[in-house]
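Record type: monomer structure entry
Structure origin: computed from sequence
Chain ID: A
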Amino acid sequence: MRWNRNLAAGAAVLGCAMVASAQQDVTSASVTGRVLDPTGAAIAGAEITALATATNQQQTILADEQGRFRFAYLPVGDYSIRASSRGFAPSTRLLTLNVGAATDLTLTLLLPSAETHLTVSVQEAPLEVNRSQISETVLESEIRNLPFAGRNYLDAALLLPGVSPTNTNSTQTLAETSEVPGQGYSINSQRNFSNNFVVDGLSNNDDAAGIAGNVFSMDTVREFQVVTAGGQAEFGRAMGGYFNIITRSGTNDLHGTAYGFLRNQRITQRTLFRRRRCR
């Protein structure tokens, strides 16, 4: 009996650890790659550092015998990936990691010379060869700068391929039964009830209306990813698409935003019920 209880407790702990790992994988990004010398040979034991430029937090790991490395759970943001090894000049790669990204890099260390330091800052975006999903990311700059009617950040998803609004006059969207205002979103012609909304790794679904379950201010949301096909198993529960949303976190810079709903009454058309009575 005691052995069965211990086994059940161990299984529960393992299950919780797997769930936590899945949530981190959904809400963060990963970077894998290899460190090579000028001839293309692997550099074993090279030191690789991932520095978050917004917070100055860094992680340092060592490459294996084949020069491979992997940062599993990196918060989204701008990073400086630096590789160094004895006898070679260090190399630095600047990149931006978005939510759910799985980036693969190849860092080449050159032979040292007088005060030589290689920094690559302008180049093509790295390909995500480790995942087969079809997804697009709505970036923070787009949420901040694009005009929105009603300040619903999810409307930016309508700019992505495969996403369209549902027919609000049909029975597929029951928005009037929901406490949250909004419309349904169709992914590849699927019903809006087939979508899954995830905020910081947690479910955020209104199953009665087929829309997001909670309203978040646009100033709260950093970015969100829309997976239209081939989503990870960590998302689950949906046959349509996945809205993977992450909220903002602090940085070392002091900043803020402000907005206001302003309308000049002199250029606003009066409705029938607001017309002045004749004296």
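Annotation 1: The CA atoms of residues 54 and 251 lie 5 Å apart.
Annotation 2: The longest helix spans residues 2-27.
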